[in-house]
Amino acid sequence: MKKISLVLIFLALILSQGAALDINDPSDNLYRDLEYWQELGFYRHLPEVRPYSAQLILSLLERVMIKDHSVQRQLALSYYEQINRGLRLDGELELTSGAGREGIAETTGSANFMIRGMIDEKVSVWGEVSANGIVEQEEVDYYMYDPSVPYGDRSESNVVDDISEVGGVALLQASTGMFSYGTENLYANIGVSRSSFGPYWGDSVVISSEASSQGHMELTWRKDHFSYTMLLLELVGTDYYGEGSFSEKYMALHSYNWAPFDWLDVGFFESVVWGERLEPLYLMPFTYFFYNQGMAGFDDNSLMGLKYRILTENRVEFNGILYVDDIGFNELIEADFDTKIKIAFETGASWTPARSWLDKINLDYTAVFPYMYTHGLQSDYEDGYEAGDTDGDGDVDYDDLYDMNCTNYSHNGENLGVTLSPNSDRISLSTRWRATPKTQFIFRSNWIRHGNASSENVDGDYDTTDGSLWDNGFSLSGWPDFASEFEFLTQDVLEKVLQFGVDMETSVALPFHVREDQVALDVGMGYTFERIWNSGRNSSNGYSPEEGDDELNHYFYLNTKLAY
Q1: What is residue 347's three-state secondary structure?
Q2: Reduced to 3 DSSP states, what percent helix, strand and coil does the chain have, rounded to the nearest 5?
Q3: Phi and psi of 333, rounded to 5°?
Q4: CB contact set of 438 (below 8 Å; sequence gap of 6+)
Q5: Which end of the chain has the lower number of beta carbons within 10 A, N or C?
C-alpha cells in the first residue's frame, strides 16, 4: 500500500499543461476551479446559467493569472493556453471501469474527437463527438440505469438511447457542441450540452449539471452589479409513466441578478415548461412567464424562485435557492399549513481557506417537498378514466397517459433538476484537498431520506402512485388530494440512505507529443460505501420504500484518459 501511495504522489508532482478540458460540461474541473476562485474573492457576480462562453472564461482566467497566488496562477494559465488558441482538432481515448450494486461491473471505452478554439476574439466553437462501447455483466438499460452509480447520482455517460450490440458490447454515440458569439459582458450560446443553474454549481434544484444534454440557446447580459440571462432548453419528453421519447418539449428561463455590494448577490428567476408547440410568448425577454402563461391558456407549467449568495471577509460563503411550483397562498396567510406546498430548496455554507492544502469544506441541506417537479393536466386523468372504464368495473385504460406529458419537470425520463425524488431531503458534507494544482482528493458523505407521499393520501390504484417523479398526487376522481394534506416525510416507512466516499483525480504529462501538444494522462478513482434501509429500488411499485428491504453496497470506479 505504501508503494502504491508513493507512486501516486510521484505522478501527481508531474504537472501537465494539456489535461482534458470540456468548457461545455458544467461538471468539468474547470468549473470547480472557477467556483473556487470566486469564493477566494478573485472576482465577483458570475452569471447563474452555465456553461459559460469561452470569452467570459478567458476573462476570468486573466484575472486569476495576475493574482499573487502561484499555484492558482499556474492552474489558470494551463486552462488559458488550452482555450485561447485557434480552431483545431483534438482527441481523447478514455476507459472507465466500475462496480457497484449487487456486484454488477461495467466497463466503458470511448474515443472522443473535438473541434474547438477561438475563431476570433468574439467567436468560439467547442464541439465533441464520442463513440462509446459498454460491457456489463448482465442485460440492463444502458441509458436510463447504471448499477455502478450510487443512490442519488446519475451516470456520467451522456449518450443517445440508440444502442447497437456487437459481441456483447453496447455501442452508443454522444455529441455536444456550443457556438458562442460576443464579449464577456454580452454573449449568446447556441448548441447542445449539459447545463446548470444557481449558486449550487452541481446537482441544483433548478437545472442539475448531472442531467443529460439539452438543446441550449442562451443570451446573457452582464454589468458590474447586474446580470440578466434568457435561456431556452429543448427537452426530450416522455409519457406520464416516464416511457417513450417525444419531441417538441421546451423549458424557458429568465434570471435577474443584482449585486448591491461585493459581498451580496440576490436574484429572482422564473421558468416555464411546455410542449407540442413553439410558443413565441415565452421567447420574449423581460416579460413575466406567469402572465404569459395566462395569455397562452394556463395549460403550461410555470415556476419561479429566489436565490442569494453571501460571502464574508474570512471566505465563509452562505448560499440558498428556493424554487416554487405551487403554493396554497390563501390557506397559508390564514395560518393553515396543511395545504399544497410544492417547492424545492437548497441552503448551506462553505469555507474556503487561503493558501492551504484544504480547498473547501461544504455543508448543505436540500429538500424536495411532495409532488414537486410532477405535473399533468387534470383533464388527462379525468378523460382517461371516463373513456377507459367503459363497463364500470374499475379496469381503466388510460389512453391519454400514454401521450407526451409536456408539462412535468423531466428530460429524457429523469428529473431536469436535482436527483432526489419528490418528498425527499439530503444533508451533504464534503471537503476537497489539493495536493498539487492538478491533483485533488474529495471526501464526501450524504444522508438521504425519501417517502411515498401517495401511500396514505391518494385514493386510487393506478400506476402513478409510487411517490416518484411520475406520481403527481391526483386521485381517480381527478382531485389533487395533496392540496389539503401536507405530508413531507411523515410516512410510517421511509427509505434512508447513508453514504461515505472518497475520490482522487490527477493529471500527468507524458513524454509524447501530437503536433505541438503534449499528451496528458488523466486518472480518477474512487470508492463509495452505501447503506440503505427500506429500499424502494426493488419494490414492485416503482420506487416506493419497502419496509425491511435493506441494502449494503460498495462502489468502485477507475477512469483513465489520454488527451492531447
Answers
A1: strand
A2: 15, 45, 40
A3: -70, -15
A4: 12, 15, 16, 19, 75, 78, 506, 507
A5: N
> Which triple of cell numbers denotes residue 290?
406567469
Q: Distance (Å, rounded) from C-alpha 250 to C-alpha 217?
A: 11
- Compute CA distances 235 → 33, 248, 249, 416, whole Å: 29, 7, 5, 9
For the chain, residues with pLDDT lower than 70 are 1-20, 136-147, 159-167, 298, 328-339, 377-400, 456-464, 475-483, 513-517, 539-542, 564
Q: Are 373 and 428 in contact (CB under 8 A)?
A: no
**Opening angle at CA 98, ends 151 and 364, nearest 5:** 35
SS3 assignment, position 246:
strand
pLDDT at site 335: 58
Query: Do 326 and 472 contact (CB within 8 A), yes or no?
Result: no
Residue 120's CB is within 10 A of a number of other CB atoms, namely: 8
Distant-in-sequence, close-in-space partners of 480: CB < 8 Å, separation ≥ 6: 340, 371, 378, 472, 473, 474
Give backbone dihedrals phi and psi of 376, rounded to 5 degrees, phi first.
-170, 155
Cα–Cα nearest to 546, from 458, 466, 431: 466
> Given this model, what pLDDT does residue 50 score?
95
Q: State how far the Cα of 440 lies from the Cα of 523, in Å rounded to an integer.
A: 11
User: How many CA atoms within 13 Å lie on the side-chain side of 164?
Assistant: 6
Distance CA 398, CA 395 (A): 10
3-state secondary structure of 85: coil
Distances (CA, A) of 372 to 274, 303, 513: 16, 11, 51
pLDDT of residue 152: 86
The position carrying cell 458562442 is: 180
Compute the residue count for the chain: 564
pLDDT of residue 228: 96
C-alpha cell at 321: 435557492
Largest CA distance in the chain: 79
pTM of the predicted model, to two decimals?
0.88
Distance CA 239, CA 470 (A): 9
Question: In this predicted structure, what is the pLDDT of residue 388?
Answer: 43
Question: In this structure, are residues 337 and 328 in contact, taking their beta carbons and an 8 Å threshold?
Answer: no
Place of cell 468560439: 124
pLDDT of residue 477: 59
Half-sphere exposure of 256 (CA within 13 A, CB side): 10
